[in-house]
Design brief:
The complex is a heterotrimer. Chain A has 2 domains: 96 residues, no CATH class; 29 residues, no CATH class. Chain A is an all-alpha fold. Classes of the chains: A mainly alpha, B alpha/beta, C alpha/beta.
């Protein structure tokens, strides 16, 4: 394991501020208790815990934050948001990471490639919900 | 007759026909008739959690505005728009609260709606049909209309996420809800508690990664079976789809012998109140509930 | 008339943002000003000497100090005037620190504002009149409200100094929450062993009148002269005759929860709260007894050998006067049933910290064997969850309750001492061990007693068969974790007790946003309140552990003594006064006064009886609300007359 060289410059600040702007949340309200991760029912499928993502946003580590799958696995069930002792809308921060990416690369999933059978069979709310979360 | 301006949302016309038809039928019996809003549009499905995107809020505000016009044509109608789908309910509720506290947001949205003379005056409340049943109809009055007690149905109430989250949209206590429990008891069913009552079904991941849904659904169903239940009751067309359709798939893979039928709460009400079974569209279900109903002599 | 003006730089506190020289020069041309100077620290001894010398040499008779808030240093500079034979009320302070330098960043604008405020002060100062403070006598008795460890300590200290002290306790025995604890951190002293000698001392002390089962119902008056009504409830057992033989208990047909054991065991309607109770007597609980009526049931009276039981006992109202009051009304544990995701109240084996104290106690419901409530089994894995309610501004208590890290550590350690093959796991956010020997205690728990600490909060507790499934996180390994436990102990935080809220509103004591009583100054007057003569002891003002509570209580007793030791007290002269010729007796001032200092009295005026407002000089705080309310301009304010204020407004509005 090597040392992680950390710095707190313009890039780091800008990334953090953009996430805060999109989500409307102050990431520094987080005191890293971890309750968001503890209650997350998708944590077994995430490669980074939710609180770890938030800490990395505090640090402005854009590359590491975006590389995780955490925000794509998040299904916006909002358990983290309603239980956060510091009243942070944690799910909104996950949404902000998604949006940050989708505003640059709008197609996390390619709708035209979905099979017709799937489009016909699945409930509208699943399709519309998914497209809203995974396309720009 | 008290009439409610009712917003169905897309799914009640496609995958969840039985949910709508059974709910409308029992609503008439309970003096709380659900009357569909003419010309409604999609609410947007999921509420956007971004703070800087107003476009995604226009559709739900338009729904509120049309519902407000609609109630003028109704009988004894409160300033409330009734919903059945828990996702629509959540989206409409959150946006309604947002524009009530943020005049600036509302005026920008209204600017877009002006052209069609559909501006919104923040004078509506959004009510899920379960809230109307609990707060306006009352469990006692529901029990009075029961002609066939649901004896033998051991049902796990499953709330999913959207009925209880977030704070702005919840219809009950988010950690200890009781509305489905009391409703099922007033129909004569036996209520079985599962701690996974709001363990997310995987939601829209059914589109991009089925394995997420499969993992969630099998955890939920495993607990339901361990607890000795023979049915689940839900209020969300997406929870219902994931629990029903994916269950069928999982049963094929695992050879599980104990299928758990998924009911909408209104379907169980319709059965208990003696409505014709056809209105429930049980033929659309993958795990056919009619088998259980037949065993318990509740079919006809 | 010669006015001296002194501008304080307060190091860089003021000089950093304000051009003090410019401010000083601005005062020189003003009428009556003889001298205007800048000094680095006006409150220092050389600073005070500068003023003293000017008074002597230049013959100054009025002083203006532009510095910090008058609540900070007005007494300092008034003393300077008094020492030189000037009337102290001819001092005027201008607050250019809190109102200028600390709240502005633009030096030019801050300087202009300071000049305006100073100019206004000079014009007002010229109109100020010498005032003479009134004196009132002092009753040398003390009242201590609340009989927990804080009240016990304060009462004992006051009584030792020699003051007659009343200790009023709402419940049948003194001892409070400390009497329920098994052991105390960090020494593991048995709580009852160190507390009961003090309780016994209270019961025996010739200067202490102990009123248990009693409540303060009314407080009137002011510092040195509080008139208090205390309701003493009937106990229906004569404490003098009662021999503590316990014959009455088994025959009582009423069985209810025992609150001393946190409702984990039963008791009867006739009972002694706990074996070491003071006063040492049985009592009949009126609310649960079948009727305090021999026609319904008199089984206890029938078996009582010494005939101590008296169904005709009546509640009494005791009226007494006190010079000072110590409020020691304590805390309550946070109602953890509010934390829905932890299931307290619906899941049997999720218990509170105080419940676990009783379970650990040899005199508790399980005779000191650790057993869980659902089935009495000895739990093999116990999970302790810190911050159950604390540090949660979203839904519960915003603050850190200070004691929970330590008491959860103590619980885990005690559990490990009692169940050698048991596993004790603490889930925590941060470990806070600020206190003498506290860090060492925590290290000992981890190093020697095998207590496991996991950094991360638990999100939910689910029932799984006869076990509990804990879903949490380990933020150090960045993994979400699940584990099974046989028992979960929630470390509930502290919140103000009902009694604290009630007494605060009765005495008109301001409380902070969380309901704890506010100190007069959080650092320099931590046991004083804004009501003179009323002092704070223990957790009524915020979470504290036992050593801190005891020190706080001794501090309160000492502060109360500074009043009780006086024969008479000076009352500040800047108070309201009524011009009876203008007063119409409308009573609006009476309603507006936050201190109930004004009353309407009938007076004879040219043969007619009229009503006029009369100000109680001892109660009046000089806040000015009445002057602002009076439609007739009949209530003025000594030290802030209309003319003086108009002169200030005129100066400020010329800018």
């Amino acid at each position: 394991m090597s040392y992680e060289y950390i710095k707190f410059g313009k890039e780091e600040r800008e990334f953090r501020e953009k996430i805060e702007e999109i989500s409307g949340e102050n990431v520094f309200s987080c005191y890293q208790c971890g309750k968001c991760s503890a209650g997350c029912m998708f944590s077994d499928k995430m490669d980074r815990t939710v609180n770890q993502q938030i800490h990395r946003i505090q640090m402005g580590q854009k590359e590491k934050v975006l590389a995780a799958n955490t925000h794509w696995i998040c299904a916006s069930c909002l358990t983290c948001s309603v239980r956060c002792p510091r009243d942070i809308d944690v799910a909104a921060i996950m949404e902000a990471i998604r949006e940050y990416i989708l505003r640059e690369e709008p197609e996390k999933i390619i709708v035209s490639e979905l099979p017709k059978e799937v489009l016909e069979r699945l409930p509208n709310i699943a399709l519309v919900g998914n497209f809203r979360k995974m396309t720009g | 007759m008290v009439q409610y301006s009712y917003f169905p949302g897309c799914n009640l016309k496609t995958n969840a026909k039985g949910f709508e038809k059974s709910a409308v039928a029992v609503s008439k019996k309970l003096n709380a008739e659900l009357v569909e809003i003419p010309n409604w549009n999609c609410c947007g499905t999921v509420h956007t959690m971004t703070s800087d995107n107003l476009m995604k809020r226009i559709a739900p505000v338009r729904v509120l505005s049309r519902s407000r016009k609609h109630i003028e044509e109704l009988e004894d109608s409160p300033n409330e728009v009734a919903t059945l789908c828990s996702m629509c309910n959540s989206t409409l509720k959150i946006v309604n609260k947002e524009v009530k506290v943020d005049e600036d947001k509302l005026s920008k949205i209204n600017y877009q709606l002006e052209e069609d003379e559909e501006t919104y005056a923040e004078d509506m409340e959004v009510k899920h049909f379960l809230e109307i049943l609990r707060d306006s109809v009352g469990y006692k009055n529901i029990a009075k209309k029961v002609i066939k007690e649901l004896k033998g149905i051991k049902v796990v109430p499953y709330y999913g996420c959207m009925l209880l989250h977030p704070e702005e949209a919840k219809i009950d206590d988010e950690e200890m809800p009781s509305v489905l429990e009391y409703l099922m008891e007033s129909l004569g069913a036996e209520v079985i508690f599962s701690p996974l009552f709001k363990f997310c079904c995987g939601s829209y991941h059914i589109v991009d990664d089925e394995t997420i849904v499969d993992s969630q659904v099998s955890k939920i169903l495993q607990d339901v079976r361990v607890k000795g239940a023979n049915a689940m009751v839900v209020a969300c067309p997406l929870c219902a789809y994931n629990l029903d359709y994916q269950q069928k798939k999982l049963i094929k893979q695992t050879g599980e012998k104990n299928p758990i039928p998924i009911f909408y709460f209104s379907q169980l009400m319709a059965i208990a109140m003696g409505e014709p079974i056809e209105i429930n569209h049980f033929e659309d279900h993958q795990i056919d509930p009619r088998k259980l109903l037949k065993e318990l002599k509740l079919e006809g | 008339m010669k006015i001296g003006v002194y501008i304080c730089e307060c190091g860089s506190n003021i000089a950093g943002t304000i051009d003090t020289e410019k401010v000083a020069r601005s005062a020189e041309p003003l009428p009556k000003v003889s001298v205007s100077r800048v000094y680095r620290y006006a409150c220092s001894e050389p600073g005070q000497n500068l003023i003293t010398n000017d008074i002597e040499e230049l013959g100054l008779d009025r002083i203006i100090v532009a510095a910090c808030s008058p609540s900070m240093h007005e007494p300092t500079f008034r003393a300077v005037l008094k020492e030189r034979g000037l009337n102290p009320y001819l001092l005027e302070m201008v607050n250019i620190r809190e109102q200028c330098s600390w709240v502005h960043s633009d030096k030019k604008q801050a300087t202009e504002k300071a000049i305006s405020l100073l100019t206004a002060a000079v014009l007002r100062n010229a109109l100020q009149q010498p005032l003479t403070p009134k004196k009132v006598g002092v009753t040398n008795n003390a009242l201590v409200i609340g009989g927990g460890i804080a009240g016990i300590q304060a009462a004992l200290d006051l009584a030792e100094v020699g003051y007659k002290t009343y200790l009023v306790e709402k419940t049948p025995s003194i001892g409070g929450k400390m009497a329920q604890l098994d052991k105390t951190f960090p020494t593991l002293d048995c709580s009852a062993c160190i507390l009961s000698p003090k309780m016994v001392d209270v019961g025996r002390h010739p200067n202490i009148t102990l009123l248990a089962n009693s409540e303060v119902v009314e407080v009137e008056g002011f510092v040195g002269n509080f008139k208090v009504k205390i309701k003493k409830k009937a106990t229906y057992v004569d404490p003098v005759k009662c021999t503590l033989c316990d014959e009455c208990v088994p025959v009582c047909p009423v069985i209810i929860h025992d609150e001393y054991n946190e409702n984990l065991s039963p008791r009867r309607a006739i009972y002694i709260p706990f074996p070491q109770a003071v006063p040492a007597t049985y009592i009949i609980e009126e609310e649960t007894c079948l009727g305090i009526d021999p026609l319904i049931c008199a089984k206890c009276r029938d078996v009582c050998g010494p005939e101590a039981i008296d169904f005709d006992m009546k509640p009494e109202i005791i009226e007494e006067e006190f010079g000072a009051i110590v409020v020691a009304t304590g805390y309550e544990a946070y109602p953890i049933e509010n934390i829905g995701e932890y299931g307290y109240g619906s899941i049997h084996n999720v218990i509170s910290g105080l419940e676990f104290e009783r379970i650990l106690s040899a005199s508790g419901p399980t005779d000191g064997v650790v057993r869980r409530p659902s089935d009495g089994k000895v739990p093999k894995t116990v999970v302790f969850i810190h911050c159950a309610g604390s540090r949660d501004p979203a839904k519960h208590l915003p603050y850190c309750s200070k004691v929970c890290c330590m008491y959860s550590t103590k619980h885990a350690l005690q559990y490990r001492h009692l169940v050698h093959d048991g596993t004790a796991v603490n889930f925590y956010i941060d470990i806070r061990t600020a206190g003498k020997d506290y860090e060492e205690f925590y290290q000992r728990a981890a190093e020697e007693d095998g207590v496991i600490y996991i950094k991360g909060k638990v999100s939910e507790i689910l029932e799984d068969g006869d076990q509990l499934l804990i879903r949490g996180v380990n933020t150090l390994t960045s993994e979400t974790v699940e584990m099974h436990a046989d028992l979960v102990v929630l470390a509930n935080g502290m919140m103000p007790s009902e009694g604290t809220k009630k007494i605060a509103s009765m005495l008109k004591l301001p409380v902070d946003s969380t309901g704890f009583i506010r100190e007069a100054h959080p650092k320099l007057k931590p046991v004083d309140t804004v009501i003179s003569g009323v002092f704070l002891a223990g957790t009524a003002s915020g979470p504290k552990d036992i050593p801190e509570t005891v020190a706080h209580a001794s501090g309160a007793a000492s502060r109360a003594s500074t009043i009780l030791a006086q024969k008479e007290l000076e009352i500040d002269a800047t108070i309201a006064n009524v011009n009876e010729m203008l007063c119409r007796g409308c009573g609006m001032c009476v309603d507006s006064c936050p201190y109930s200092a004004i009353e309407l009295e009938a007076k004879n005026s040219f043969g007619h009886t009229i009503k006029v407002a009369v100000v109680n000089e001892a109660l009046c705080k000089g806040c000015g609300t009445c002057s602002a309310t009076c439609l007739n301009g009949a209530i003025g304010h000594l030290g802030y007359t209309d003319n003086q204020i108009l002169a200030q407004i005129k100066a400020l509005s010329q800018k």
